[in-house]
Amino acid sequence: MTKVLSPAAMAAQALACAAVGAAKVLANQSRVIALNRPSGSKLT
What we know:
The longest helix has 17 residues, at 7-23. The protein is built from two helices and no strands. The chain has helices spanning 7-23, 25-36. The chain is elongated, with a radius of gyration of 18 Å. The protein is mainly α.
């Protein structure tokens, strides 16, 4: 059995997923900043 969502339902799902990621940007960046420094780039 295949379930098909309407375009409006699919659009709402993408917005909900994007909102979760946006809320975690600062936490994720703070976790990986130490890993990125040895590459030779300067933090600005």
